[in-house]
């Protein structure tokens, strides 16, 4: 391979043969990472016959082994910011940006109503993606990002360091922090929710995403989501807002868990592909009802 254009064609063929879903895109992004250029600049360089960047071939070979692209570049784009990611943390997905959109809409409405410093909890923060994006877009908000995993916490600390209004807590998202009971305006969470009955098949997920970030517990994957909804009902103020990501198959179960824990105004939200992706609700006045068996908190990881 004597030119960048030849290298990109070769890489696209190799990645296609390996079953990578977006081979051409990944080839361009890897070249761009090595060259310090964006996608358009790489394509322009290819047209004028630029040289192949050093390290391109071994990086492509790693990608053919289904090492996630984000592990190779060390970054993941999310809602207009770049996050540091790598082994030990769940890679944030574009569809999770819907949670940020919904949470920021609610926060801006709260600010318009005179709440000067709304309080947010991002439960199962993982890489810190949601907390960082909300802090970036609503700098008035005070955010408590909660994560249990030691490995994920390292990445969250790195990604949240620039945001002084974010407090990172190492804790179980199913437990209720006493200092925040009834004080939170918005809870947002992308918890582990994969059902035992719907295991992922992508090698990037099965071989590289932490298991504790995936499995929700039980055939329907609802054990952890239900426990998190129950905990959120304790920290939210009356009229507070919660939004949770979930699997398509869990929409009805999440709706029921909200209603069983004192929430009202339950609303299902679809992502850009039209799939049921998240459900929001508002905490009503009064004591929540019990919803399902207690969870043995410390047997489950919580990570986004």
From TrEMBL:
Keyword Methyltransferase: yes
Record GO terms (molecular function): nucleic acid binding; peptide chain release factor N(5)-glutamine methyltransferase activity
The encoding gene: prmC
Ranges where the Methyltransferase domain occurs: 119-261
Signal peptide (residue range): none
Keyword Ligase: no
Domain Release factor glutamine methyltransferase N-terminal: 6-74
Reaction catalysis annotation: L-glutaminyl-[peptide chain release factor] + S-adenosyl-L-methionine = N(5)-methyl-L-glutaminyl-[peptide chain release factor] + S-adenosyl-L-homocysteine + H(+)
Protein name listed in UniProt: Release factor glutamine methyltransferase
Residue stretches in coiled coil: none
A GO biological process held by the record: methylation
Segments for region (Disordered): 285-304
Listed EC numbers: 2.1.1.297
Entry similarity comment: Belongs to the protein N5-glutamine methyltransferase family. PrmC subfamily.
UniProt: substrate binding residues: 190-193
Binding-site list for S-adenosyl-L-methionine: 147, 190
A Pfam family reported for this protein in Swiss-Prot or TrEMBL: PrmC_N
Alphabetical UniProt keywords: Methyltransferase, S-adenosyl-L-methionine, Transferase
InterPro entries: DNA_methylase_N6_adenine_CS (IPR002052), HemK-like (IPR004556), Methyltranfer_dom (IPR025714), N5-glutamine_MTase (IPR050320), PrmC_N (IPR040758), RF_methyltr_PrmC (IPR019874), SAM-dependent_MTases_sf (IPR029063)
UniProt source species: Kocuria subflava
Main function: Methylates the class 1 translation termination release factors RF1/PrfA and RF2/PrfB on the glutamine residue of the universally conserved GGQ motif.
């Amino acid at each position: 391979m004597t030119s960048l254009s030849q290298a990109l064609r070769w890489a696209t063929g190799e990645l296609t043969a390996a079953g990578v879903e977006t081979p051409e895109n990944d080839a361009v992004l890897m070249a761009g990472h090595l060259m310090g250029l964006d996608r358009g600049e790489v394509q322009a360089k290819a047209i004028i016959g630029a040289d192949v960047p050093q390290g391109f071939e071994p990086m492509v070979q790693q990608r053919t082994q289904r090492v996630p692209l984000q592990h190779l570049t060390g970054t993941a784009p999310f809602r207009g910011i770049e996050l540091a990611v790598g082994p030990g943390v769940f890679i944030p997905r574009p569809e999770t940006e819907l949670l940020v959109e919904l949470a920021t809409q609610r926060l801006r409405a709260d600010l318009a109503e005179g709440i000067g410093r709304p309080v947010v909890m991002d439960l199962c923060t993982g890489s810190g993606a949601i907390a960082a994006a909300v802090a970036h877009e609503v700098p008035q908000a005070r955010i408590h990002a909660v994560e249990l995993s030691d490995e994920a916490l390292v990445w969250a600390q790195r990604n949240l360091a620039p945001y002084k209004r974010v407090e990172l807590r190492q804790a179980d998202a199913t437990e209720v922090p006493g200092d925040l009971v009834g004080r939170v305006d918005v809870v947002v969470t992308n918890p582990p929710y994969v059902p035992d009955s719907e295991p992922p098949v992508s090698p990037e997920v099965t071989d590289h995403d932490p298991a504790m970030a995936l499995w929700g517990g039980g055939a329907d994957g609802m054990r952890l989501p239900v426990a998190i909804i129950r905990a959120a009902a304790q920290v939210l103020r009356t009229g507070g807002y919660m939004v949770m990501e979930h699997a398509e198959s869990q929409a009805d179960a999440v709706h029921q868990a909200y209603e069983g824990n004192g929430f009202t105004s339950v609303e299902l939200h679809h992502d850009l592909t039209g799939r049921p992706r998240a459900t929001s609700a508002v905490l009503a006045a009064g004591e929540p009802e019990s919803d399902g068996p207690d969870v043995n908190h410390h047997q489950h990881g919580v990570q986004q």
